[in-house]
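Intended use. Records like the one below are meant for learning the mapping from a protein sequence to its folded structure. Do not use them to infer anything beyond what is encoded.
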Amino acid sequence: MVKHRVLFKLKEFSSEKEKALKISEIKSRLEALINLVPPLKKINVGININPKEEFDICLETEHDTLDDLNAYAVHPEHVAVGAIVREVLESRACVDYEF
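Structure written out for the chain above:
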């Protein structure tokens, strides 16, 4: 099994309400991928509650193999959500590992 963990730091927003709405949209769109992308076995999207930390969103997915993770990465539904994230993305960190 392969776990994919991604941390997202978003750009500045004009208000906290605007940021919260965008984060909610991203979370919903990512979580919907479980029903749209067959190589995706599990997904969890967490929203940072600690204002002292740098990143805003944590994405965790599970896949049977690295090939499945790669198929998920290029799946059109995932690519579409990625485009939404990139519009507001400042930085990203990722790690993929076997467990």
